[in-house]
Design a protein that fits this description.
With 433 residues, the protein is an alpha+beta fold. The chain folds into two domains: 95 residues, Nucleic acid-binding proteins (OB fold (Dihydrolipoamide Acetyltransferase, E2P), Beta Barrel), CATH 2.40.50.140; 302 residues, BirA Bifunctional Protein, domain 2 (2-Layer Sandwich). The protein is 31% helix and 27% strand. It contains twelve helices and 19 strands. The strands form four sheets. The protein has an eight-stranded mixed beta sheet with strand order 7-11-12-19-18-17-14-13, with helices on both faces. β17 and β18 form a beta hairpin. It binds one RNA strand of 75 nucleotides through β2, β3, β4, α2 and β12.
Length: 433
RNA sequence: UCCGGCAUAGCUCAACGGUAGAGCAUCCGGCUGUUAACCGGAGGGUUACAGGUUCGAAUCCUGUUGCCGGAGCCA
């Protein structure tokens, strides 16, 4: 007798099979019990008639509580009355672990505050499980595309001696008596590794101790940061549009049903994500804002969420905004030739109000410019001697970007908040469970 | 950190100055086709906390805490 998973149930219609999983829901009809089983791959209705089971097994079926783990055997058959079209006619049942009564999460509406407190159980629900599966697919697509395009995975340290960018707040810790910080970016390190390997990327957790409290912020999130030697801003945009399109196409190919059925995602919006993406200079973007609902938007300011949403709304696919004001961006950005007030940076704004999912640009090769920026940003030059070495010994034009995994998952899945994109989100003042 | 809102049974909510309630969940009973089943019964509360106003406060006022939404900042 084969032990099957629910995903492959249709292939076993007419056969006697074994299935193990958790009780998602039970309907007690007396001498007839409906047991809806969840096994991590799907959901299947099983039905136990008293006459078909050993008396002890049927008695156990009558006592099943929500989320009890069970092992059942029976005949799998097509039945239009069952959700999903297939049903398991139980002929024996074994309780593996009887769940205590009053499982907190019911098949009804709950508040998000309550669900986050129960996150360790909430992830069992089909919708949450589907999101985590899609996240895993996105991670795989990211690695597959980069690995297939000559990038070498070089992971960078999480414990770091100083700020990478100097702007955001860092989580501090003690490193054998000296202060250390949790990394907020691996980029600076990969500016070093590209001189050894050409094209590299790091992909791991990133920490920002910002007091940010919005639907697009986590204090711990994952970021993939590709970096390329001999690459310009224009090169990076071409890479980004190919890369993002591949990620979206992979999810559509593997999870269309989950997107439509469980997440109620409008997949036509995702199907539009094909290269090339529209390109807008910061100057043009500001002009659009001023001609639109933000006539007083001052040139030089960074965009807020409403501005990003307005710009992104005008296109059916992600849009690049490049050549931001130098003052609004990180210290390592290369200047635009002849216009030092703007820099060779580029952000990628996702459609449908999801905002910036990628930030990137061309890094400066000028030690003089870096030394000036350290002073302007209040950074200690001594912390960055190694970074200056990269300019002293064979500097090349180089560029890269960082893609926020959780924002990308939220966008592709059509979620209202990034907290559902990771199993155990870390948010402002929230670290349980 | 700032602005706004909310806090009543395990959950989702009602009661809005006059005896604290419902649905779901739980427990007991019934039912051979349920789809968040249905029917009958039971238990379940320091109305977030502290103070104040009042004959009387879940309700009005002040403070605290927590949560939700948004902003700034960022990916």
């Amino acid at each position: 007798m084969p032990t099957i998973t629910i995903r492959e149930a249709a292939d076993h219609a007419g056969q006697v099979v074994r299935l193990q999983g958790w009780v998602h829901h039970r309907t007690d009809k007396g001498r007839l019990q409906f047991v809806v089983v969840r096994d991590g791959t799907g959901i299947l209705q099983a039905v136990a008639f008293e006459k078909d089971l050993p008396p002890a097994a049927f008695a156990a079926a009558r006592e099943l509580t929500q989320e009890s783990s069970i092992r059942i055997t029976g005949t799998l058959r097509a039945d239009a009355r069952a959700p999903g079209g297939y049903e398991l006619g139980i002929d024996d049942l074994e309780v593996v672990g009887l769940a205590e009564p009053e499982y907190p999460i019911q098949p009804k509406e709950h508040g998000v505050g309550f669900l986050m407190e129960q996150r360790h159980l909430w992830i069992r629900t089909p919708r949450q499980a589907a999101i985590l599966r899609i996240r895993a697919t996105i991670v795989r697509a990211i690695r597959a595309w980069l690995d297939g395009h000559g990038f070498v995975n070089v992971d960078t340290p999480i414990l770091t001696p100083a700020a990478c960018e100097g702007t955001s707040t860092l989580f501090g810790t003690d490193y054998f008596g000296t202060p250390a910080f949790l990394s907020q970016s691996g980029q600076l390190y990969n500016e070093a590794t590209i001189a050894a390997l050409g094209k590299t990327y790091c992909f791991g957790p990133t920490f920002r101790a910002e007091k940010s409290k919005t639907r697009r912020h986590l204090t711990e999130f994952w970021m993939v940061e590709p970096e390329m030697a001999f690459a310009t801003l224009e090169d990076v945009m071409e890479v980004e549009e190919q890369f993002v399109s591949h990620i979206v196409a992979t999810v559509l190919a593997e999870h269309r049903d989950a997107l439509v059925d469980l997440l109620e995602r409008d997949v036509t919006a995702l199907e539009a994500v094909q290269p090339p993406f529209p390109r807008l200079s910061y100057d043009e973007a500001v002009a659009r804002l001023q001609d639109g609902p933000f006539p007083d938007f001052p040139w030089g300011e960074d965009f807020g969420a409403p501005h990003e949403s307005y710009l992104a709304e005008q296109f059916d696919r992600p849009v690049f905004v490049y050549h931001y004001p130098t003052a609004a961006k990180a210290f390592y950005m290369e200047e635009v030739a002849g216009r030092p007030e703007v820099c060779r940076s580029v952000d990628l704004l996702a459609p449908e109000g999801y905002g910036e999912i990628i930030g990137g640009g061309q890094r400066t090769t000028s030690t003089a410019l870096l030394e000036r920026r350290f002073a302007e940003h209040g950074l200690s030059r001594a912390d960055y001697e190694w970074y200056l070495d990269l300019r002293r010994f064979g500097a090349v034009p180089h560029s890269g970007f960082g893609l926020g995994l959780e924002r990308t998952v939220a966008w592709i899945c059509g979620l209202q908040h990034v907290r559902e994109t990771t199993a155990f989100p870390r948010m402002l003042e929230k670290i349980y469970p």
